[in-house]
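Cross-posting from the modeling subforum.

Setting up a comparison between two proteins and wanted a second pair of eyes on the formatting. Protein 1 (sequence, then structure tokens):
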Amino acid sequence: MDTVYALATAQGKAGVAVVRVSGPRAFDACLHICGDVPEPRNSVVRVLRDAQGAQLDQALVLTFAEKQSFTGEETVEFHLHGSVAVVAAVLDVLGGIDGLRLAEPGEFTRRALENGRLDLARVEGLADLIDAETEAQRKQALRVFSGALGGKCEAWRGLLLRAVALLEATIDFADEEVPVDVSFEVTALVSEVAEALEREIAGSWVGERIRSGFEVAIIGAPNVGKSTLLNSMAGREAAITSEYAGTTRDVIEVRMDLAGLPVTLLDTAGLRETVDAVESIGIARARARADAADLRVFLVEAGEKPEMDPREDDIILWAKADLLGRVENAISGKTGAGVTELVARIGQVLSKRVAGAGIATRARHRQAMERGLGALQAALELLPYGEASAEVAAEELRVAIRALDSLVGRIDVEMVLDEIFASFCLGK
């Protein structure tokens, strides 16, 4: 492979900036720029110089031997003073060394995958960890990056390989008397993996929501106080408010951290009958987003009913508590009455759902597991027929194994690699 280099920390002025070099000529680059190559894993302070001997910076230099670095290749890290000028000068010198080139986005991590340092699920976990904005996202991404999903796949794969081996023994000795009936053990093994996949698939929907964010829609009639409530919860004027009905025409979105979970609050157009063409579009969008939302908060005026049928866990509150006096389940974005309680209630509902989250966090994970589960269910239908269907059942089990292999990147992943690594920054 080429030897690549890049700034591994964020762009701009900082206390420290890290430039990473990885590949077969990484130690040559270190020798070129600081005069020697420190022992691997020993950090030393060196003066970095350009080809003419002029000083670039005084930096901490850290080297990693092959198979001991993040990428699995010889790697050098220069921990520089975080000046934009210093970083630019060091990168310019590295670019002038034969055999070195600037890394592409995600190339360090891609090399870690290709060199067996990470599986594909861990790569995705790393991307999610870098993008994590809330505590729930951090914890979930760290579980995936630590190899929890890959570990489960490996365990499932081992059980299925055992089942395939038993079936193939039946096929190989079809003309002889096999001393033990393997059908019960095979059925037990396949059923165990199928049940585990069903649980993981069910939890993957919540896992995806933790990663991408939950949506909570505020719904009600015009002028019921939806926008005022949104502004109160957001702590800023995110939506325009006025005394005129129909002010909100489109869906207003505010992203926030709520009880450690990523939540997008949706302020929707007031639901009512109207002949205004533009308002009608807004109402249609409001209903569509409300239908798709994970949770809905209904604001209802005294004596009225919700404009849509509430679902389980939906929250129904009396609007304009400032005009109602002391009423249970009432709220006012204007005075703040009941807002703290609403935030806590939303957090409780969503936290309860998060408790059932699986390790799988992406649609790709779920689709791979669904393919595997479909093959296992087909195999279970064939197993009762004994030797007559053993060969076909074994092939279904191999299909399931290939589906799990694609989940962690053993096979059939070239089509998704470019998309995954394009989301990484240059220094990863």
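Protein 2 (same layout):
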Amino acid sequence: MRKGESQINEQEWVSKIYHGGAAAYKDFVKAYYDHVYRTAYAVLHHHQDAEDVTQEVFVQIYRALPEYRQQGLKTWITRITVNRAIDARRKLGRQKVHACDDQQLQEQAEGQWQEELSTEQQVIRQERQQLIQEELEQLPQHYRDVIQSFYMEEKSYEEIAVEQGLEKKSIESRLYRARLWLKRHWRKEDFE
């Protein structure tokens, strides 16, 4: 899916929900249900808890939709889901911990907080990597190869030149033009 199409789909979803009400929201839920469930399950590791959180997320999204600012619908949904799942996990943890003394409880809470932060960061990082990979597919092939080699494989100009059978100056030039192409075609807010 191209970036322009994704933006149009976001606007179409929001517009359909505003004007179409519950029927349009039902279609939205069908489209994003699996993504929300998988995200919740990645945090909770329990089917029923993930199902409960998924239902809560869609209620929260419906209520929060007027505040949505066209900032990347899937990323926004993912953040809401991760935060809701972390809240549910904390609540479940409080219910299970009754016999711990204060010191144990504090140590457990600190450890759980670090784990929850890393889970949220992992989910958001995976989401961002997937988005970047999809966007890289839009690059012309000769630019994509140079970007991939230089930034992701961390190869030098010389190594890339040898691989591609080109002069070092040609690689520098392609990398420069690839960066210009990215600046013209990518918007910063797509990756926030």
